[in-house]
Amino acid sequence: MTDSKHEKPEIDAPEGPAPEALEIVDIVVGDGAEATPGAKVDVHYLGVEYDSGEEFDSSWSRGQSINFPLNNLIRGWQEGIPGMKVGGRRKLTVPPQLAYGPAGGGHPLSGKTLIFVIDLLGVS
């Protein structure tokens, strides 16, 4: 399945305690170019809070993908996207230390474990 027009994903509420390390799960393995550390990536993504299951961000909701150098993104993405291939869909469960830091860090998502579903549309 290499169609880059994947529909917005649904994330089931996780069960059990949040993981303490980055979890990477390929939902669809792509067959295009592979993302490398430091690459510029074009992605569609959905982000939800682990504990509440509440969506906090979605490029699908805005109707357009984002294009960023991996180095500008949270560490969970910097570590979780390399190795992914264009056309793929990956779920990252990102603990606070690889997202927005510990609680009280000044960001609304500080201290929270986050789940992202990412479709890789392109790399450069």
From TrEMBL:
Family statement drawn from the similarity comment of this UniProt entry: Belongs to the FKBP-type PPIase family.
Keyword line: Isomerase, Rotamase
Keyword Isomerase: yes
Entry-linked PROSITE patterns: FKBP_PPIASE
Lineage: Bacteria, Bacillati, Actinomycetota, Actinomycetes, Micrococcales
EC numbers, comma separated: 5.2.1.8
SUPFAM superfamilies registered for this protein in UniProt: FKBP-like (SSF54534)
PANTHER family: 39 KDA FK506-BINDING NUCLEAR PROTEIN, FKBP-TYPE PEPTIDYL-PROLYL CIS-TRANS ISOMERASE FKPA
A GO term for molecular function: peptidyl-prolyl cis-trans isomerase activity
Reactions it catalyzes: [protein]-peptidylproline (omega=180) = [protein]-peptidylproline (omega=0)
Domain PPIase FKBP-type: 38-124
Organism encoding this protein: Leifsonia tongyongensis
One Pfam short name: FKBP_C
The keyword Transferase belongs to this UniProt entry's keyword annotation: no
InterPro entries in UniProt: PPIase_dom_sf, PPIase_FKBP_dom
Protein name from the UniProt record: Peptidyl-prolyl cis-trans isomerase
